[in-house]
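Need residues for this backbone.
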């Protein structure tokens, strides 16, 4: 993977947040041009069946909730959903789309946000790949901090098979993808295509027992609990 330039990690995180705020009106709209080189093949029916299997019951935290495709599925099972995102526009579209009083919306940067309560389930979709590798341990520490006794985590993300959908580069040593808005402006976002076996080993070292399995052609689903380190 070639190196593009030496921008700092905070600058990359800011670029990522700016992109998704600007992209919000077109995000998930398949009638609009893709911001990538291609599109994933996972459909709404797959996501619904997955949530019916996972059954996120109780009080759920959804990290990087976006415009609500998974929020709508989570709230079918949950007692309450706290939907967190760094983009005000994403949160507004999510609230309009989901329209359920059991959903509490929080605006915040995941990398600096501090939880105000415990949850039975933490869920995130298409987010883990946007966590810089150097911040992975810290992020999973946050997930652990959010979970009450017996709490579960679930997540969906892309595998290396999805790398053909992006123009990838190293920026300041961090894996990134170049994303394009409808008006032609381009932004770099952090994009780490984790190999499932490598990710499982990394999480096991952090004390997580995570089951990972394929989801569609280019994604994986992970679920499990914190069990502690030896």
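Answer:
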């Amino acid at each position: 993977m070639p190196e593009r330039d030496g921008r700092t990690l905070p600058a990359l995180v800011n670029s990522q947040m700016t992109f998704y705020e600007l992209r919000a009106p077109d995000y998930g709209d398949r009638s609009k041009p893709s911001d990538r080189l291609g599109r994933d093949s996972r459909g709404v029916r797959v996501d619904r069946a997955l949530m019916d299997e996972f059954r996120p019951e109780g009080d759920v935290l959804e990290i990087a909730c976006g415009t609500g495709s998974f929020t709508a599925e989570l709230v079918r099972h949950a007692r309450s959903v706290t939907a967190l995102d760094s983009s005000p526009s994403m949160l507004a579209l999510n609230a309009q789309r989901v329209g359920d009083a059991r959903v509490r919306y929080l605006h915040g940067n995941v990398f600096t946000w501090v939880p105000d309560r415990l949850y039975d389930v933490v869920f995130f979709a298409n987010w883990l790949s946007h966590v810089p590798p150097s911040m992975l341990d810290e992020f999973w520490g946050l997930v652990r901090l959010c979970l009450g006794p017996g709490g579960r985590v679930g997540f969906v993300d892309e595998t290396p098979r999805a790398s053909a959908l992006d123009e990838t580069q190293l920026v300041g040593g961090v894996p990134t993808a170049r994303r394009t808005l409808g008006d032609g402006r381009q932004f770099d976002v952090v994009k780490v295509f984790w190999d499932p076996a490598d990710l499982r080993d990394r999480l096991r070292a952090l004390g997580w027992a995570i089951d990972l399995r394929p989801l569609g052609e280019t994604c994986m689903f992970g679920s499990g609990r914190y069990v502690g380190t030896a």
